[in-house]
Amino acid sequence: MIAIVLSMKDLGFTIATYYGAVLTTWAGIEENECGVTPFDNLWALYVWRIFCRLIPVLAVYLVPTEDQISEAMEKLVQADKDLAKDKSRRDGMGGLSESLAESVASDGVDIVDIVDDSALPPDPADPSQPQTTANPTAGAKS
After folding, report:
1. 20-47, pLDDT tens digit by residue?
2. Distance separating alpha carbons of residues 53 and 66, to the nearest angstrom
3. CA 33 to chain centre
4. Rounded Cα gap, residues 6 and 12, in angstroms
5. Annotated domain spans of the chain
6. Which of 27, 64, 86, 115 could crosslink 41 through cysteines, CB 3.0-4.6 Å?
7. Which residues contact 105 (CB under 8 A, 6 or more apart)?
8. What is the model's pLDDT at position 1?
9. What span, in angstroms and rounded, lies between the C-alpha atoms of 141 and 124?
10. Going by C-beta distance under 8 Å and a sequence separation of 6 or more, which residues neighbour residue 125?
11. Could you report the per-residue pLDDT of 107-117, keeping only the tens digit for each?
12. CA count, 13 A, side-chain hemisphere, 107
């Protein structure tokens, strides 16, 4: 882990060195044919350096406040409750598939109107339903 951190530090130093060299060249601070280096635009590099050092301070405003975090958590909890309601509503539709349920819900049709209870198999736990003990495969030819 230490090797990764140190290699990233070295990479950052290398990139900063080349970045500084390019900016110095663009500012016209390089040795000319007379062997003299003009420092007329050195102030611009110094102002740029100060500006670049202050940029991370702006990142402080990207950190959410406690109120924003609380509001986001409340929205997340509400979204989870809504999702659970939708899922339980879809699960109690009488065997319609999930994609059909979404399609029907998007059309604005109430699912209760579509599901035909007579097509559903009888509930074995319901005592009002007639229970048969006959073998459903009896008399089938194989």
Report:
1. 999 998 888 887 777 777 888 889 889 9
2. 27
3. 57
4. 10
5. 2-62, 66-114
6. 27
7. 111
8. 85
9. 28
10. none
11. 555 545 444 55
12. 11
pLDDT of residue 86: 81
The average pLDDT across 121-130 equals: 62
Distance of alpha carbon 90 from alpha carbon 138, whole angstroms: 36
* Whole-angstrom distance, CA of residue 59 vs CA of residue 37: 37
CA atoms of 75 and 64, how far apart (whole Å): 15
User: Cβ–Cβ contacts within 10 Å for residue 9, how many?
Assistant: 10
Inter-CA distances, 33 with 26, 30, 37, Å: 17, 10, 9
pLDDT over 90 (residue 71)? yes
The pair of structure tokens assigned to 69 is 């975090």
The residue type of 46 is Y
First to last CA, the chain: 69
CA separation for the pair 116, 120 (Å, rounded): 7
Chain-wide mean pLDDT for the chain? 76
Place of tokens 């663009």: 26
Q: How confident is the model at residue 92 (pLDDT cuts 50, 70, 90)?
A: low
